[in-house]
Amino acid sequence: MEKIKEYRMPYQLAYFDCDYTGHLSIEMMLMLMILASEKQNESLGFGLDETQKLGGGWVILDYEGHLNGELPKDREQITVGTRIKAYNRFFVVREFWLDNAAGKRVAEVSGLFTFMDLQKRKMAPIPAEIMAPYQQAATIRLPRPQSPDKVTPDEKWSSKQYRARYADIDSNGHVNNARYVEWLLDTLPAGFLKDHRLTAFRLNYRREVRPRSLVTSLLGPLMSNGDQLTSQHVIQIDGKTHACASFEWQKIQ
Amino acid sequence: MEKIKEYRMPYQLAYFDCDYTGHLSIEMMLMLMILASEKQNESLGFGLDETQKLGGGWVILDYEGHLNGELPKDREQITVGTRIKAYNRFFVVREFWLDNAAGKRVAEVSGLFTFMDLQKRKMAPIPAEIMAPYQQAATIRLPRPQSPDKVTPDEKWSSKQYRARYADIDSNGHVNNARYVEWLLDTLPAGFLKDHRLTAFRLNYRREVRPRSLVTSLLGPLMSNGDQLTSQHVIQIDGKTHACASFEWQKIQ
Fold first, then answer.
1. What is the Cα gyration radius of chain B?
2. With an 8 Å Cβ cutoff, are A171 and B74 in contact?
3. Is the ipTM value over 0.90, yes or no?
4. What family does the entry list (chains A, B) (predicted)?
């Protein structure tokens, strides 16, 4: 059987990676996972520069994540890992994981990526030379991350508006995907965020958010199922959905 | 002569440390400098935990910074340095610097810090045991960072409003100081930010910004003096000034 290439990135958390509770934020967790994937690509000869020379770049479409207890804390030495789970001509499914200082696996995330032609701003076939160093066979069926629940915002939903800040924009000229998490979480009451821990998330990206856009972050009524609470989220601009998410929560004992 | 203890922190920039131009953002530069100062305190036995046990924490009052050309780029290996320039019973002046991968000093920043009693939320004398490991003598006069220009916003100023996001809050329960830079820069036109390079900044912090506050970021008319442009900034909440800043800019040739 082929050996799947894994990449492990040791990292020491700093205060700016953490939220107000002093634990790694979901936003920075996703940022670090993407960094690990870039480093793996780079280690195999197809870093950002080489990929851009081929006229393209990676775009995230979906995340599905599962958290196992507390996320690591400020100054903790963690390991972020990644590998390609499967791919075909247009899509890559990557697995990510995060081990805390004690070696416990505290997060597992699966991400669906596509390849974008940077000139045409359209999906393009993944250049074969990028995948070759992984020495993995392509597959027809992909183990896609689970999508957020299908929901339609109505008058029971609440919303908040945010202006995309200059600092939200990354070198691709749009709001970095991980920044959406700030808008998603910010709609939840502060008391709720204090008393509950995220246990799972599904995030779907549909359209980019351009500089200075006025973003509406919508929150549906919380749904409970035993111990588990689910929050539904939609990010809109001018009534168009740019992203949506389902978050699972558990009350902190 | 006494030997001033310096601390040097090697760091590799990641994409999330950089702004849309792919260079280190001012916000992250300040975050990294504070991280270096925390690491120096920690290396001398008074890290965050030990300092909190003494009932207090460091608070930044002023920054004065000078930039020498381009800031380093994504994936560049940099060194962030710091040392205590002078201190007395209530204040510490710290020097920070940033060397790029080629060893060129691209930023020099001076910061004025005070010590806060975390229970009374008031300034307190700096505990002697924190300063002892630095083996530096206290001084009466302090080489304080230069303050921003004294300005009063009027009808010629423009403004933008921002809601402090959940993600802006740090473990001290208020908006992290470096995050103010996002509100300050965001008032400037995108075209201006693209065509100009920051060469110097003076930043003064007066009041903290609490979660969910509605922040007004005010921008005065640009003033030119030969090649040099100066922008004046005030951050207000409910008409009260929480911070102000003067930024010097040069047109990129």
1. 18
2. yes
3. yes
4. Belongs to the acyl-ACP thioesterase family.
